[in-house]
């Protein structure tokens, strides 16, 4: 490479362009959608639009998120997936209204996750999949409102108990991590498998490579199911108008299976 040569310049985002990218979601929130714009540097002009509730900078080539991200004090939804982000600013912990944070498919490591993430007390969904994280900070256990966590395709060998036992956690996707396979760790692995069969993000929120990985993972579900101990077959009460408790449980299993099968092949 020639001396002084820099990487791709990227598209310049002006305030006018940014204003034209503001959309209103179905539930009335203002979303600034700058995804897939070829952006390489966080556009400072959007700080003048810090009243938006949702910000989408996904599928760009951004390497650094500035400390000034904290100016988005109304932000509930932040999507930064599929960029080149190597470190998060400490000020991200000041986004107290944030419910959804997607950092999937970046270049994050354990050292680039600030302790201030623990201050996102209202966070419901956190996606850290497809990064280079080998250790999750136990302080994430302070996020008591978390419902969904994605840490798939990282370098993890364990999940901190403080995270696995979050009181409201419903979905934990920890697929394709180098978890131990010793006999003494069978119970640990099995507990992860039971949780990881549930997906964290909707199909529309995934980029092409992420979606492909999820589709491949879906194809392996039968193998995982085959590793589980055989259980007695439950009866199907298909003709009941008002199903009893056993039929309801069977229907819930059927609905989950149908959702997984509906993923595009």
TrEMBL record:
<dbReference type="InterPro" id="IPR055414">
    <property type="entry name" value="LRR_R13L4/SHOC2-like"/>
</dbReference>
<feature type="domain" description="Disease resistance R13L4/SHOC-2-like LRR">
    <location>
        <begin position="30"/>
        <end position="130"/>
    </location>
</feature>
<dbReference type="InterPro" id="IPR003591">
    <property type="entry name" value="Leu-rich_rpt_typical-subtyp"/>
</dbReference>
<dbReference type="InterPro" id="IPR050216">
    <property type="entry name" value="LRR_domain-containing"/>
</dbReference>
<keyword id="KW-0433">Leucine-rich repeat</keyword>
<dbReference type="InterPro" id="IPR032675">
    <property type="entry name" value="LRR_dom_sf"/>
</dbReference>
<keyword id="KW-0677">Repeat</keyword>
<keyword id="KW-0963">Cytoplasm</keyword>
<dbReference type="GO" id="GO:0005737">
    <property type="term" value="C:cytoplasm"/>
</dbReference>
<dbReference type="InterPro" id="IPR001611">
    <property type="entry name" value="Leu-rich_rpt"/>
</dbReference>
<comment type="function">
    <text>May be involved in the regulation of spermatogenesis and sperm maturation.</text>
</comment>
<protein>
    <recommendedName>
        <fullName>Leucine-rich repeat-containing protein 18</fullName>
    </recommendedName>
</protein>
<dbReference type="Pfam" id="PF23598">
    <property type="entry name" value="LRR_14"/>
</dbReference>
